[in-house]
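Homework help board

Subject: predicted structure for assignment chain

Our instructor gave us this sequence and asked us to write out the predicted structure in token form, then describe one feature. I got the tokens but I'm not sure how to describe them. Can anyone check?
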Amino acid sequence: MAAFEKIEYRLLNSRQKENYNFQQIAARLADYGFNSIRLTDDWQGADFIAVHIDGETFLKVQLKGRLVIDRKYSGKGIHIAFLHGNELYLYDHDKFVQHLEDSELIGADSVTWHQQGFRSWPSPPSWAIIYLSEYRIAQ
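My token output:
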């Protein structure tokens, strides 16, 4: 067997990146008592289910490559998981949207949100990092 060599994430195609991110996130969640079950299709908006060993906590998780909000996830009990560097964030989509609307962080002039129902940030702004700090899953 050849020696193991680390891969370069940037060289992966989009499907490979999604698989890689799932494995990274599932490993991190395992440290917190979650078993992650990958779904073959987006069941009720979820890419995977995270089930806690307490037998009560069950999360429908949508895997993303960045911070996002999307109306298609509203009202479905979806959590969004994304990696930002070495940091993992797993946040309740609807609570985050409510926070954005309550604090007027999405202004009336946001065409992407108000007209298209979608908004993403390639790199989370400082206000988002502050809000998401309670949703950061430490290594």
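Reply (TA_rk): Your tokens look well-formed. For the description, you could write something like this. The mean pLDDT is 92. That's the kind of observation they're looking for.
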